[in-house]
Design goal:
Length: 422
């Protein structure tokens, strides 16, 4: 019996081995599929769950599967916020351009600095800075800018100039922090209406205000002004309107401090038109002596009319009164009116060369806008004066040489054909 079984085994052992191999392969395939199904069942997530689980990064394979499967829908609560994307946009970083000479980058020993040489500029938001030399620290977000001194002529070229909106500043050195929008400035000059404000140590704040210590205010446009007011501290406020407030100040003339000072003051932004005093001019004429000329008041009445009264006085007895006004209504008419009365004396009383005369002058100019009454025109130029008025009260050389006065008033009508007629 054992011999028969052994013989059968020997006869069919090849077929049994082949069947065993096939069985093992089939068993492995089914177990692999079931194991993958279990893994897929455990790892399957919706798109919103994937984003919530790992908001920083999403695997490509998972996103592709989520897109292909029509069952998965993106949750509206996880829509990408455009404002969040803008926070990381390239506009939040300074953009450097130029650097005609060279650019040196240092990224060793923990440093991340870039050096720019030769006519470089940087733009950050609405702020633009230009200088001949800049160095930028990428770790702190601070840029340092200055000019370059010419070794032959001794002049400094490419001084830092910062432009922000309509304001422009030129300085000796600048350190600007792009993250905090604060700046430290050395030796800057800013224009305040008709005056100049010099600052030695300056700090610019994020609200665009400027703090100044050891400053000067003057109307002299020289780098070293002949006269100025020294300011211990000052602050320039730019919003909502520009004005300058300063602390204790004293007067300095030709480098000599005067015993004149004020505890505080302010420099308001002067409007284009405002009622106020008209400061006189001083001088001397050979015929009428020393004079104080054109002192008076200026008045503003709304947006369409202004009026001024001025007077002049001469030490030899001459005087004059001038009245001037202007009016304008847009798309209707505009014009001006002036009147002058003067008592003119030359020489001293009792002397053979003494001469006295009284003069008057009247001028009116008017022009009608073509849009007021289409097809009609009206203009006037009236000039009346006494014979010697131009000699003593002229405002230009051409006017002083005129010995005749002329006037004209004109009106006309232009026929405009009707567009309905053929």
């Amino acid at each position: 019996m054992r011999k028969k079984i052994a013989g059968c085994f020997d006869r069919y052992k090849g077929k049994l081995a082949l069947a065993g191999v096939v069985f093992l392969l089939l068993a492995g395939s089914f177990s692999g599929r079931s194991q993958d199904d279990r893994r897929r069942g455990r790892g399957r997530q919706t798109f919103s769950q994937a984003v919530a689980f790992n908001p920083d990064s999403v695997e490509v394979s998972d996103s592709i599967k989520a897109i292909r499967d029509s069952i998965h829908r993106a949750d509206s609560l996880f829509k990408i916020d455009s404002a969040a994307l803008q926070k990381h946009s390239s506009l939040d970083y300074p953009a450097f351009t130029g650097a005609k000479d060279s650019i040196i980058e240092i990224f060793t020993d923990g440093q991340r600095k870039v050096y720019y040489y030769g006519d470089v500029s940087v733009t950050y938001g609405n702020m633009k800075l230009t200088a001949d030399y800049m160095e930028y620290d990428m770790k702190t977000g601070i840029v340092f800018a200055r000019g370059t001194k010419d070794t032959i002529t001794g002049e400094t070229k490419g001084m830092p100039t910062m432009t922000e909106g309509k304001a422009s500043y030129t300085m000796e050195e600048l350190r600007y922090n792009f993250n905090t929008r604060k700046a430290r400035i050395t030796n800057m000059i800013t224009k305040q209406d008709d005056g100049l404000l010099h600052g030695k140590n300056i700090k610019m704040m994020p609200d665009k205000s400027i703090n100044i210590t050891n400053g000067k205010y003057t109307v002299c446009d020289l780098a070293d002004p002949h006269y100025y007011m020294t300011l211990s501290s000052a602050k320039i406020i730019t919003e909502p309107s520009q004005k300058t407030v300063f602390g204790p100040a004293g007067l300095v003339v030709e480098g000599v401090p005067m015993p004149i000072g004020i505890p505080f003051g302010f420099i308001p932004k002067r409007p284009q038109r405002a009622t106020g005093f008209l400061m006189p001019t001083f001088g001397e004429e050979r015929a009428r002596g020393f004079y104080l000329r054109d002192a008076g008041m200026y008045f503003v009445f709304g947006d369409y009319f202004d009026f001024s009264v001025t007077g002049s006085y001469y030490t030899l007895g001459s005087y004059s009164i001038d009245v001037n006004s202007r009016y304008k209504v847009n798309y209707k008419f505009n014009g001006s009116l002036s009147f002058t009365y003067s008592n003119d004396q030359t020489g001293e009383k009792g002397q053979p060369d003494f001469f006295q005369t009284k003069n008057v002058g009247l001028r009116w100019s008017h022009s009608q806008d073509s849009k007021m009454m289409p097809g009609t025109t009206f203009s006037a130029s009236v000039n009346f004066s006494s014979p010697s008025n131009n000699r003593y009260n002229a405002t230009s050389v051409t006017e002083a040489l005129q010995n005749q006065a002329s006037s004209s008033i004109s009106s006309g009508t232009v026929h405009i054909p009707s567009p309905c007629r053929t």
